[in-house]
Amino acid sequence: MKTRMIDWFKALAGTVEYRIRPWRYAPDELVVLCLHSTPLAMLPAFERLMKFLQRHFTILSPHQLEDYFNGNLNSGPYVLLTFDDGLRNNKHVADVLYERGYGACFFIVPDFVKAENQERYYRTAIRRHTLPQFDRQPEDTLPLEVSQLKELVRQGHMLGAHSMSHTMRATDNQVKTIREVEGCKQELSLLTGADISAFCSIVNTNLSVGHQGKTLINEHYRYHFTTFPGLNGISKDAQLIFRRNLELDWSIGKIKYALGRADLSRWTDGIERFRQL
């Protein structure tokens, strides 16, 4: 009941904000979306989401990130799609985007890909609770196969690191932190042959990335995608990329809330703590 009430409030708040003050993002603003599971049955919802985004944003290719952070793009606002965990059902949306000439970032967990029992790994290390009405097929709890990861690269998508095991914590010792950050990059490069230039921190960036982890990410990756929502056009910091989480079963009102500004202020202190690491 509490969850439904929160969802209802967010949908109402998003709808009201959208009507009273339609988003007026600057031409160089970049809104980065974070999605996870994308079941085949939810493709119609993804199609609706894409139509909505195309009315408000220019779809940014991940290969345009360098130009964006160098200040060379100003015909937005832009939106970039990212997908966490590397679930096999992400291939459906990857194909849809490819057919339309768009690219996205897919953040991969190598230990999930290589696990002997992949479903058990997903349910213990990545997502303990799933919605039975949402994730119903085997591909909804299994990782992309190596051949599929390579196909994503051929389609023009970007592969990124999502830590080696998805159990990374800010309190990890040096050996584990190195494995989660450096080891993930090396393993993904070996598996796919791709240049891995982006790291996406897990769960909550302040809980998963400490000083040592942040230093290693800065050294080994060009981009650090975080769990903080915010406005990328203001800071244009490739090592602190803000993202907005949403899921395909959300109502349009809740999506509007996620894309708006009403919820941004409560993240200010957490972002500053991360900056001070």
Quick recap:
The protein has 277 residues and is of the alpha/beta class. It is built from 13 helices and eight strands.
Keywords:
277 residues, alpha/beta, TIM Barrel, six-stranded parallel β-sheet, two-stranded parallel ribbon, 8 strands
Q: What does this 3D model show about the protein?
A:
This protein is of the alpha/beta class and 277 residues long. It has one domain: TIM Barrel (Alpha-Beta Barrel). 45% of the residues lie in helices and 12% in strands. The protein contains 13 helices and 8 strands. Strands 1, 2, 3, 4, 5 and 8 form a 6-stranded parallel β-sheet that branches. α3 links the parallel β2 and β3. The protein is globular.
Q: Look up the CATH topology.
A: TIM Barrel
Low-confidence stretches: none
Query: How many distinct helices?
Result: 13
By DSSP, the count of extended strands is 8
CATH class: Alpha Beta
What structural class do the secondary elements suggest? alpha/beta
Per the principal axes of the C-alpha atoms, what is the gross shape? globular
Tell me which CATH architecture applies here.
Alpha-Beta Barrel
Q: Would you tell me the overall average pLDDT?
A: 93
| Gyration radius, rounded | 18 Å
Number of individual domains: 1
Outline the biggest β-sheet: 6 strands, parallel
What is the CATH homology-level superfamily? Glycoside hydrolase/deacetylase
The portion of residues assigned to helices is: 40-55%
| Oligomeric state of this protein | single chain
Question: Could you give the distance between the termini?
Answer: 38 Å
**How do the helices and strands follow one another from N- to C-terminus?**
HEHEHEHEHHHEHEHHEHEHH
Instruction: Bin the strand percentage.
Output: 5-15%
